[in-house]
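dumping this here so i dont lose it
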């Protein structure tokens, strides 16, 4: 995907990553008021892990830090009693806002508070290439954006290191969760040598990878009941390059499942031999949410952006306000264009 001209200009002019990390640490170090931590809607392991790692570290340093987020069931194992609050109703006096794993200027994508009404200092830490870096344009704002990082937790780890945090298992474990989930348990192509070095350090700090992996692998009975629905709706394009499935409310009702239970199936679809793009349709009726996964040749990000969404090259998503038939046709057209761009059609 090509960034807009304004984003490209901002990216060319912004300081190097180590400088941005030091600036974020310095801003946190000098702040004396409460710290509000937010992430994106439908949080994944990276979003939740980033929030918890930062919150626990700041609290260990004596800060009044609070995350406002509603995590999905499959990540609830990570939470300690009362750590998260669902929604911020009013901005605390002298607050510093930290937005993680999402573009802070995309108010519809930021969960937990009305960021459009916030006028105070802001730190936006994110690894998505579609981030417009607008936080850096406001007074007291800082954009720490690096698409080369596999996970936002990797970046939070760097900030905490710059803050000279006393590492513990409680701080390191959520950061390792985000690093593990965003690299497909260290199986995806974004598993760089630096990712493995960071993971090794987090293990040295007490993070428990075996426990994380075991907890993520556990599924309730309804997961398997819903899997039947996913498999029965599974389809391949005539050339086998696209594999997809669709779940609607009726399917959920049949097995007593919830929308959050659908999240992991797109990764299962991605494993279909010969498929370059996996698509999971969550059909709400007038709105369809798309989860996209691709292999190295095809950009899921390009397709998602064309449909009004965003994400990464191998993993992206979009929310489209239209009936399923229309969304499916638009997705197929954009996927065909991307497959042709990649020389696969």
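and the seq i came up w/
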């Amino acid at each position: 995907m090509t960034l807009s001209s304004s984003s490209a200009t901002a990216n060319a002019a912004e300081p190097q990553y180590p400088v941005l990390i030091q600036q974020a640490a310095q801003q946190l170090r000098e702040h004396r008021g409460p710290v509000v931590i937010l992430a994106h809607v439908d949080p994944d392991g990276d979003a939740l892990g980033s929030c918890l790692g930062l919150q626990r570290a700041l609290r260990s340093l004596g800060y009044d830090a609070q995350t406002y987020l509603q995590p999905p069931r499959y990540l609830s194992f990570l939470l300690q009693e009362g750590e998260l609050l669902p929604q911020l109703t009013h901005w605390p006096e002298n607050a510093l806002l930290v937005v993680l794993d999402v573009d802070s200027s995309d108010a519809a994508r930021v969960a937990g508070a009305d960021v459009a009404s916030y006028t105070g200092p802001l730190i936006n830490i994110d690894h998505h290439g579609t981030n417009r870096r607008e936080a850096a344009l406001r007074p007291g704002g800082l954009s720490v954006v690096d698409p080369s990082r596999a996970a936002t937790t990797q970046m939070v780890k760097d900030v905490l290191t710059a803050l000279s945090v006393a590492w513990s298992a409680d701080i390191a474990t959520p950061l390792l969760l985000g690093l593990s989930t965003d690299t497909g348990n260290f199986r995806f192509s974004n598993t760089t040598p630096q990712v493995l070095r960071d993971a090794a350090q987090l293990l040295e700090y007490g993070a428990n990878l075996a426990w994380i992996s075991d907890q993520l692998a556990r599924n309730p009975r309804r997961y398997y009941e819903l899997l039947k629905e996913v498999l029965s709706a599974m389809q391949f394009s005539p050339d086998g390059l696209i594999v997809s499935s669709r779940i609607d409310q009726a399917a959920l009702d049949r097995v007593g499942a919830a929308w959050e239970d659908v999240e992991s199936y797109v990764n299962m679809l991605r494993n279909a031999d010969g498929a370059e793009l996996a698509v999971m349709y969550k059909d709400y009726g007038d709105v369809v949410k798309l989860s996209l996964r691709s292999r190295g040749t095809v950009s899921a990000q390009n397709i998602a952006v064309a449909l009004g969404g965003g994400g990464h090259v191998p993993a992206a998503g979009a929310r489209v306000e239209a009936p399923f038939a229309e969304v499916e046709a638009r997705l197929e057209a954009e996927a065909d264009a991307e497959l042709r761009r990649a020389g696969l059609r």
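The domain at 221-341 is CATH 3.10.310.30 (Diaminopimelate Epimerase; Chain A, domain 1).
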